[in-house]
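Morning F.,

Quick status update on the modeling queue. The single chain you submitted on Monday has been processed. Sequence for confirmation:
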Amino acid sequence: MNMLKKGGTVVLPSIVAILLSLIIWELAVKIWGIEMWILPAPSSIIQTFIQSMHTYPEHIWMTTIEAVLGFLLGISFALILAFFLDWSPLLRKSIYPILLFSQTIPIIAIAPLLIIWFGYGLLPKVLVVALVTFFPVVVNVIEGLQSSDKDMIRLVRSMGGTQWQVFTNVRFPSALPYLFTGLRIGATYSVLAAVISEWVGASKGLGIYLVKAQSAFATDKVFVIIALISLLSCLLFLVVLLISRLAMPWKYKQYKKRSSRDE
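Structure tokens below.
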């Protein structure tokens, strides 16, 4: 019951703020008579969504596949590289600066190259998403592994623990909060990366639908697609958050204890 009250206290102000913003938006459009192609009213956007609802599922499904597959691929490579960089200080000093430099290259500049190399199919779009989600995961995992409790490591070793036991029982569990921080960031970026990859070349997806609506000056449809992209990003974020709660129950129990003490 207390958790529901806390959840309501946190969420309710945001809901009220959103509703007030929509009401002000609606009234402003009606009062000043703003043209629909410039700024449609929220009621018009909702009406457009209902009328065109049958056209969205295939685009949502394609963007979701690209985002999820790319996200999983990026996580896999990020974990492998993070473990290697943590294991070898020489590799870490050699490759880590290259990783940082790679983030200065805009993803919109890389997408056309991947289209040229791999065609207009699913693969280049998955690779774009993987490239975007890769960096926050690898950086956070390396930081988590490096910040492991040294006293706990010495304790396990003094009890005859092997290097593998130290990793599985101390270092990796301590890196889990950092890992899921990177995953939450990557989850929100994955949908954005999928949409950007579709701008370069695609036949289905929210990105290509957005480009077509923009070209037709269908501003109401543009707002609908923006809302769908945001909702899809939030959904993936919540999935990662749920997995983190299942994977780290001790962390959230400690958080609940601290919250109860503060009250």
